[in-house]
Amino acid sequence: MALRANELQAELGKVHLMGVGGVGVSAVARLLLDYGLEVSGTDAKDLPVLEGLRQRGARIEIGYDAANLGDAETVVISSIIKPGNPEYDEAVRRGLKILHRSEGLEATMRGHEKIVTIAGTHGKTTTTSLTAHMLKAVGARPSFAVGANIPSLGTNAELGEGGYFVAEADESDASFLNYRPDVIIVTNVEADHLDHYGTEEAVHQAFVDFARLLPEDGLLICCADDPGANELARKMRHERSDLRVQTYGFSDHADRRLSQAQATEDGRFSALVEWGSGQSYTLDLAVPGQHNLLNATAALSVGIDAGLDVDEALKALASFSGAARRFEFKGNVGDVRVYDDYAHHPTEVLAALSAGRTVAGEGHLHVVFQPHLFSRTKEFYREFAKALSLADSVAVLEIYPAREEPIEGVTSELIASRVEVPSHVLSPAGAVAHIVEQAEPGDVVMTIGAGDVTALGPQIVASLS
After folding, report:
1. DSSP structure class, residue 402
2. Which residues form the Mur ligase C-terminal domain (predicted)?
């Protein structure tokens, strides 16, 4: 990669990253540091991830100020950085090169033999993690960038010495169209991020446009069980005879078919996966849920295309311990197990609760859910209520606004009032107290959402103690 590092240095020079504490921008910072570039960055808060970047040699500042740009030649920004930010405005005034996070990531991808991108309304972080973990475990030394910290990988991004680059491709603002992949996995295509796209049809069209970026003999891997991803596979087979298109899932028509999914006595999850004529293998995982069996099958398809020994690839997948905030175990107190999950779309919530229900067995499932975005709550409050009804008790926090202003009439009560099991809108402190009162030995507690609900898991563990 020495030649590529010289090219990247010539192209970007000194790089300053705004919003560098975010998981996506910090991944770009780590990769640039791996290439040997001079890196600086700013964030509004002093987050734990920043200390790791400082130790790697990055100059990190807290609080935005035009002086923080120093002598930067290129600026990389997250999606939340807008005009009015003093550093952004100074970069514009100076005429510096300004790249979106996805463009910065794309620059680090170039020069690799094969670029694998994983997209989907949900499931992409875990599938990216599984794919990178599998390739690293078999000695392929991949480069990767994932939207979460991965315990088995030790980081969310790394420049490897091998020819593969595995990256999570974010569809939320259509920035995945900035990549130039050789292989695409699409886990699912559903209506989401309508604050950006406007309509469900526009979401589906963005995935079509993404698949069209594949070169001749590129590989498109789609989940046959998801109507949107399955339709994408059908469309691209019809449109591009030069593409290789594969599907996976429990559906009979899937190219790689899953069957006999079950939870084993030792807490693992397994299924049979077969393809072609008579090729059948056992897929065994430490992470729960049928959705993760699907994610692992997608990763396995990349491994097979890369020429890995199937048994070695399966062994590598079996050793995957999970991604941060994806059914992440937080503690066990008095046989009450506490997990945290990033799910923030109804389909994700249903998958997470289905896994939680399996883990709970004969015990009860208690959930603390934090809706994410007013627009998403307005669009999907009925679907959220239906998914949450799989639990035995539900505490709903107030909506986490993120980048949005409130919408009149859109509150957490829209969800809580429609959940078919005992459900209440509570404060964070009230939710913790509710869990402590409700939970009994053998029960499972889950904190779910993309906002600061994640902080409640350790509080619940401490309170149960």
Report:
1. T
2. 325-451
